[in-house]
Write a structure and sequence with these properties.
Residues 16-98 are annotated as: Disordered. Keywords: Membrane, Transmembrane, Transmembrane helix. The chain crosses the membrane at residues 105-123, 129-148. The protein has helices at residues 3-16, 78-84, 101-122, 129-149, and strands at 62-63, 66-67. The protein is mostly helical. The longest helix has 22 residues, at 101-122. The two termini are 59 Å apart. Helix 3 (101-122) runs antiparallel to helix 4 (129-149).
């Protein structure tokens, strides 16, 4: 028998047994003991903290097996506890780099040319040939100026293995 005919026979058996029921039904299988949940939930033991700003113990917490009462420790309100939990305030971003006059003019040309064409088209202004040419040339010139001025050199302090450079 060839390898191809063996594979064909296996596929025929799979297709023939597609609608057959399983030999052992999953309802007959016993429930694993590791999945059983205990009847009474476990309580965790909390030790008081001496750090400032730590909310410490609350009502219902266990300390060495003894349940705390409200008169033993004043609990914080739930709103105060939830407000500070998981709050992250990122540091302020670094300032934007200062642009020289040529870069500013390139950005103005890049966006100014198409902006003029868009406003002129929406307002149904009659565009002279020189104005149309100037707007398109400003766009292309601004793009080329920004690409040419874009530095593709690696930083001097990057070392021999600096990974990806963006």
């Amino acid at each position: 028998m060839t390898r191809q005919s063996d594979e064909d026979e296996v596929w025929r058996q799979i297709v023939a047994s597609f609608n057959d029921t399983a030999e052992r039904d999953s309802a007959d299988q016993p429930w694993p003991d590791s999945e059983n949940v205990p009847a009474e939930p476990t309580r965790r033991v909390v030790k008081p903290s001496e750090e400032p700003g730590d909310p410490g113990l609350r009502d219902g917490d266990l300390l060495d097996g003894d349940l705390l009462d409200a008169d033993q420790h004043e609990a914080d309100s739930p709103d105060e506890r939830d407000e500070d939990e998981g709050h992250f305030e990122p540091p302020p971003p670094p300032p934007l780099p200062k642009l020289d006059l040529a870069t500013k003019l390139a950005w103005v040309a890049l966006f100014g040319g198409p902006a003029y064409l868009l406003v002129a088209a929406m307002a149904n202004w009659h565009m002279e040939g020189w104005a149309l040419f100037t707007a398109v040339a400003a766009f292309i010139g601004g793009f080329v100026a920004l690409v040419v001025r874009m530095g593709d050199d690696r930083p001097n302090d990057s070392g021999w293995d600096d990974g990806a450079v963006l």
